[in-house]
Amino acid sequence: MEIVTRRLSEALPGQPIESVMTPGINVLKTFDPPLSALEGATIADVRRRGKLLLLEASTESHGPLTLLMHLMSAGRLQLQPKRGSLRDKTSRVLIRLPDDHELRLREFGTKQAAWIKLLTLDGLEAEESLKTLGPEAWPDPPELGETLASPRPLHSLLRDQQVIAGIGRTWVDEILHAAQLSPFKRGDDLSEDELAALREAMVSELGRVIDVYEEQVQLPLPEKFPKPTRVHAHQGEPCPRCETVLEAVFYEDYVMTYCPHCQTEGRVLKDRRLSRLLK
Ligand SMILES: [Zn+2]
Fold this sequence. Notes:
The chain is α+β, with helices and mostly antiparallel strands. The protein has helices at residues 2-11, 121-126, 128-131, 144-147, 154-157, 169-179, 192-216, 260-263, 272-278, and strands at 19-21, 42-49, 52-59, 63-70, 75-81, 91-97, 101-107, 115-119, 247-250, 255-258. The strands form 3 sheets. It has a 4-stranded antiparallel β-sheet, with no helix packed on it. The model has no long low-confidence stretch (mean pLDDT 93).
């Protein structure tokens, strides 16, 4: 979301909104104020918090309003010349802009999971999805001792947005590999040195990814983003640090990759699917 926010905040502020439509069923989770309140509004700012995008607009009828958007895992925003058709099965939200341009939220998956809310200032302050977010993982995460003080394993803690905001599951593998920590180490079982290494890995790995995006991602925002991974989903390939073959644990809808030499003291972790069957 960071690079999407950057690109949109370069292009959108000052632009008037002609109309907002929601071809996606149930994508809009609020009803007051109505979306029509945005017609004729001027976009003031585009911000990010965790994985949420906040498009702020000033309106004549309702004062400042925020369109809060969560793209979920398969959603994409694109700023492009008008495409005409609303019948495109992937379209969820369509914001018409001047000069025949549009900002379109599309979703590439079988589920309709992405959502938006239109909020007043009071509504924004009370919004649960924002209030419950943990501190930002980038660019300046907090000292992690308190944040991670939980018996849960790191691979689950780090992608829990309420614990720390902004890390997707792909980057958890990269961060834990960079910090040389086991994905199954408990959050409350980290030494000062390990906490410091983890914090440093968070900043450097997320920074590395954003640098790649900064160079490669331009308007009108691509459907597919580059994935500059070195570890995640690279199981069977040599570790980029020590050349040990990377191992993986397979879950129902994702894979967790790690280096047995760098992260788990040589242990190959049980594949959860198997260990559950054998219990
Ligand atoms: Zn290694």
